[in-house]
Amino acid sequence: MPTGNRSDIDRLAKLLDTQFKLPGTNFRFGLDGIIGLIPGIGDTVSGGLGLYIIHRARQEGASGGLIARMIWNLLVDTLLGAIPLVGDLFDFAHKANAKNARLLQEYLDRHASEHAKPVGRGTA
To answer: Which sequence ranges are marked TM in the entry (predicted)?
Structure first.
């Protein structure tokens, strides 16, 4: 059942992927990269947080194909992020949560326009 309020998804995606800016650059990062630095559990914790976005996408009525794509984005982020050193750099660059939030917004925008009632048509 669509809730119509996605602000929680957007806030979480921003917090996890783009909340902070490296001074003097345009490079943005979030808690996903920072939490991912914790050996052993960091990527599991950040992956778990990212699952909330996918859960909310299901609540918003996202298609199975979109959910699968979002799971893939998060899985790649979580598994590759778990590789020592290289994975930590990957965590800062690959922004799965922001991608998933954007994919959901695009999906909802497409479906809203498909289901919009034409203006001026209807019964009087």
So the answer is: 34-54, 66-87
pTM of the shown model: 0.80
Read off the pLDDT of residues 63-100 as tens digits, 9 standing for 90 and up: 999 999 999 999 999 999 888 888 888 888 889 999 99
Q: Single out the residue of 112, 12, 7, 107 nearest to residue 58, CA to CA.
A: 107
**CA-to-CA dists, residue 103 to 27, 62, 77, angstroms:** 21, 10, 16
Among 103, 120, 50, residue whose Cα is nearest residue 81 = 50
The 10s digit of each residue's pLDDT in 33-69 is 898 888 878 889 999 999 999 999 999 999 999 999 9
Spatial separation of the C-alpha atoms in residues 7 and 117, rounded to whole Å: 25
Contacts 24+ apart (CB under 8 A), 51-55: 52/12, 53/9, 53/12, 53/13, 53/97, 53/100, 53/101, 53/104, 54/100
